[in-house]
Design a protein that fits this description.
Enolase-like, domain 1; three-stranded antiparallel beta sheet; elongated
């Protein structure tokens, strides 16, 4: 027998048991998705300065050193300006000028790097040893007086050394009593070194007590 249902079904009965009233269960809400990280919202790493950068005053005092080499027609002029920090002078910037434009690019790069080292404070004396260790593949030259320079960069390093000694950041190299006595003996007899030393390259080797001796570094063939 067919029965037509006229009302909405809200319950049912199975095996003599009446079911509970049907309750519609709402669908779970979707979980919120994290917003994509853009370049502007990313955290920026904080830059840590190992040394505070010195600020340039309006006026600075300095010294200018002249370099004249047989490699170039025109001389080079090295200017080093100083700043006073805690009552002590220290280099702040360096400039090198010359009519010779052959080395303009690398000289500008060199002076900018050295000036940046000076402005960051700390010990800048290491520049002297690094620069004096640069050798020109074409060969060095002898300064007036016989002192050997392996390159133009090495002589710029010597200018920096002279300036650091002048302002008290470096001390002159110590001379052993034996070498000082040998120099004094040569001065008293009126002689000068006239041969090149195989160790330091200076024209400062002279005959002393029957043995060739370098008055610059103390090298001697006799030991």
């Amino acid at each position: 027998m067919t029965v037509k249902i006229q009302k909405k079904i809200v319950g049912f009965e199975v095996a003599g048991k009446k079911s509970e009233e049907a309750v519609s269960t709402p669908a779970p809400a979707p979980e919120p998705q994290p917003e994509p990280t853009t370049q502007a919202s990313r955290p920026v790493a904080e830059v840590i300065q190992l040394q505070p950068v010195l600020r340039r005053p309006e006026d600075l005092e300095g010294s200018t050193y002249k370099i004249k080499t047989p490699l170039f027609e025109h001389a080079f002029y090295v200017t080093i300006n100083d700043i006073v920090v805690n009552g002590r002078r220290r280099p702040f910037e360096i400039f090198i000028n010359s009519k010779n434009m052959d080395n303009f690019a690398w000289i500008v790069a060199l002076t900018r790097v050295m000036s940046a080292v000076f402005r960051h404070g700390g010990d800048a004396t290491f520049l002297v040893e690094e620069m004096r260790s640069v050798f020109d593949p074409r060969g060095g030259y002898f300064k007036p007086g016989g002192k050997y320079m392996p390159s133009l960069v090495a002589e710029i390093g010597e200018c920096i050394e002279r300036h650091l000694m002048k302002i008290g950041m470096m001390q002159p190299p110590e001379i052993s009593p034996e070498l000082a006595a040998k120099r004094q003996a040569v001065v008293e007899r009126g002689g000068l070194g006239n041969a090149q030393c195989p160790k330091c390259g200076q024209l400062s080797v002279t005959r002393l007590d029957g043995c060739d001796t370098c008055l610059e570094c103390g090298y001697s063939k006799c030991g």
